[in-house]
Design goal:
- With about 325 residues, the protein is mainly alpha-helical.
- It has ten helices and eight strands.
- The chain starts with a helix and ends with a strand.
Length: about 325
Amino acid sequence: MSREAQVRFCERRGVRFPPPTLLVALCHTQQQAADVKAWLARWLAPRGLAFNEDKTRIVGLGEGFDFLGFNVRRYHGKLLIKPSKAAIRRLRERLAAETRKLRGLNAVAVITTLSPIIRGWAAYYRGVVSSKVFHTLDEYMWVLTYKWTTRRHHNKPKHWVVGRYFGKFNKFRNDRWVFGDRASGACLAKFSWTAIERHVQVKGRASPDDPALAAYWAGRRRARLPLDKYTLRLLSKQAGRCPLCGDHLLTADQPPQSPDQWERWWLQVTRQAIAASYLTHDGRPGLARDDHTRLVHASCQRTLKARQRRKPELQIAPPTRLA
C-alpha cells in the first residue's frame, strides 16, 4: 500500500498524521548541502517518507530563501531575517478584503475586526528586522481606513471625516493620525506600536521537559508576550492573577507559533478585556499618584462597579484600557 493511500485509509479511521515537516539545513558549501540532502533521503526512505522535490532547493545565502513566513538572506556580508514578501502580500490582501467586508458598519466593528489581525501579525514578526515593514504597513492601513471613512460619509468634506475618525485616541502615543471611535474611545492598533525584541538564545542545553527549569521557561514565555513593560511589571507584581477573583489574567504555557495563533491569542485577551483600574483600599478610592494600579478582568471590574453604584462613596476613577 502506498503511503498516500495509507494516510487516506487511516484518516477515515480517525487517525491523524502530522502535517508536512519543514526543514532547513545550513551548510558551508553547495557540495556539503547535496551530501546532507542525500543522507536525509536515505534516512527517510525506510520510514516511508520522502522529500517534496518541488519545494526542496539548494540556495546560497546571497540569494536567500523563505521559511515559515520569514526571508533569510545575507546583505553585504550581514545576515538579516525579515518578513517575506509573500507574507506581506497575503497580509495586505487580507486587510483589504476585511475592510471591504466592513463597509456599512461602524468604526467599532472596524477596530474589533482589524486590531487582532494587526497585533497578531506584528507579534509574530517582532523578533526580526521588521521596523521598516511595520511603518510601511501602518501607511497602508491609513489608506484603507481613510477610504473606508470617505465611502461611509461620501457627502462630508475631508476635514470633517478626519476630525471625526482620526486623532490622539491613544494617550500613550503622540500620534494624531490614529483611527478611532470618539463615542467609545477605542482605537485601531498600529504595527509600529509593537516593539522589536530580538530573540534570546536558550542557555546551554536547557530543555522544556526538565522540571528543574520550569521557572526559567516560564520567565522566557512571559518575556515573549507582546505587552508593554508597564503591563508586564504589573503582571509580575500580581503573579499574573486578578486581585478581585484570583484567577490567571493571561496564560502562555505554549507561546503562539504563527500569525494566526497570535491573532487568536489577542482575541482571547480582548474577550477577557483586561483593564488597569484604580482599586479601592480601605473603603477609599485609590488615586493615580498612589501605587494602586492593578490589572483586573473586565467582568470582575463590572461587578465591582455594580457594588460601587450601590455605595456612591466607593466611586473610583475611570480605568485605562490595556494598550
